[in-house]
Design a protein that fits this description.
The protein is of the alpha/beta class and about 350 residues long. The protein has two domains: about 140 residues, Response regulator (Rossmann fold, 3-Layer(aba) Sandwich), CATH 3.40.50.2300; about 160 residues, Rossmann fold (3-Layer(aba) Sandwich), CATH 3.40.50. It is about 50% helix and about 20% strand. It has twelve helices and 13 strands. It has a seven-stranded mixed beta sheet with strand order 2-1-3-4-5-12-11, with helices on both faces. β1, α2 and β2 form a beta-alpha-beta unit. α5 runs parallel beside α6 and α7 packs across α8. The protein binds beta-D-galactopyranose. Beta-D-galactopyranose (GAL) binds next to loops.
Length: about 350
């Protein structure tokens, strides 16, 4: 019995010793890797179409600030309207080990290849402002672009309920241009069917550029013998081109023109009376929302999106923010009070 008790006592001691020497060594070894992984900041890739327009420069600044405010990093590239370049830039981002990709597609269809490549590397993709079509996109965040078109057409039909209309569309490669056109014609259709409004010119504008819009407007003036009562232009850049063409014929300020984006030049034209209205889309809200969702998604958190938008392949979880119609009467309470533009910039004071 005495001998057995001795053996048990010895065994207990051995076990205790093993417990004491083994455990403390394992704790730091096991905890170090996950701890250091957590402190590595999330890296977001941001692939932009272009920086040649005022609004996208704002988007770049605001998105960067919003991502960094969340403790994450952002790598930004811009392709200036070149589809092949946008794809190769996105590939480089994917290979560099980003945690998530945010994309403003130049071409809604061509960028599907980017979504596919990102997914092969286990990286989720969010479409920023413009939808990527025919792809397994993870999230789409934009403004309600159909509503933008409806706001333009409502404002112009209130001023010109009957007459000859010119529609200067956006880029055919951009899904937003199609949504906007749908919105415009939702409102115009009953007028057209009643015979009150005639669409005498309707054209897309390659890459949304003022120079292409101006050429379209010159053609519209030429082919209609200047019998034009109103113009709806897809954004302020194209409205700028339209107004230049009208000015060359002494018609600036005589024919109502609608735009979109509340670009400084557009807002100034509203003050001087050559542009009738614009649609303000608070980019600050858009960029903050996308930054928040991107960082959460990169961390593997579940995202609840209230809307679904069909992109030709799937029902994409979507967030659509509300645009604001702006004219000379509410400039101060919208773009100025929001800090989007200053009083000095708008009124030249
Ligand atoms: C659209 C966007 C507009 C305008 C345009 C040209 O996709 O909705 O706000 O900026 O692109 O860049």
């Amino acid at each position: 019995m005495k001998r057995e008790a001795k053996v048990i006592w010895l065994l207990v001691m051995v076990l205790l010793l093993a417990a004491c020497t083994g455990t403390p060594k394992q704790v730091p070894e096991k905890q170090v890797p996950p701890f250091s992984e957590k402190t590595k900041p999330i890296r977001i890739g941001f692939s932009m179409d272009t920086l040649l327009e005022e609004r996208w420069l704002k988007d770049r600044e605001l998105f960067k600030k919003s991502v960094e405010a969340l403790g994450a990093e952002v790598e930004i590239v811009a392709a200036n309207g070149d589809d092949a370049l946008q794809i190769s830039q996105a590939e480089t981002l994917i290979q560099s080990g980003i945690d998530l990709l945010v994309i403003v597609p130049h071409n809604a269809e061509a960028t599907a290849a980017i979504v596919h490549k990102a997914h092969l590397a286990g990286i989720k993709v969010i479409a920023y402002d413009r939808l990527v079509k025919n792809a397994d996109l993870d999230l789409y965040v934009s403004f309600d672009n159909e509503q933008v078109g409806e706001m333009q057409a409502k404002a112009i039909t209130e001023l010109v309920p009957k007459g000859n209309y010119v529609f200067i569309g956006g880029a055919i490669t951009d899904n937003n241009a199609h949504l906007l056109k749908k919105g415009v014609f939702n409102v115009l259709r009953p007028y057209i069917e009643r015979g009150d409004i005639n669409i005498i010119y309707d054209q897309w504008t390659k890459d949304w550029t003022p120079v292409n819009a101006q050429a379209n407007m010159e053609e519209a003036l030429r082919t209609t013998n200047m019998q034009i009562d109103a113009v709806i232009a897809a954004n302020d850049a194209t409205a700028g081109g339209v107004i230049q063409a009208l000015a060359a014929k002494g018609l600036a300020g005589k024919i109502p023109v609608a735009g979109q984006d509340a670009d400084l030049a557009g807002v100034q034209r509203i003050v001087t009376g050559t542009q009738t209205m614009t649609v303000y889309k608070p980019i600050q809200t858009l960029s903050q929302e996308i930054a928040k969702l991107a960082v959460a998604m990169a961390k593997g958190e579940e995202i609840i999106a209230d809307r679904k938008v069909n992109n030709g392949k799937i029902e994409v979880p979507s967030v659509l923010l509300t645009p604001i119609a702006v004219n000379e009467h509410n400039l101060d309470s919208t773009v100025i009070s929001d800090g989007f533009h200053t009083v000095g910039d708008v009124y030249g004071e």
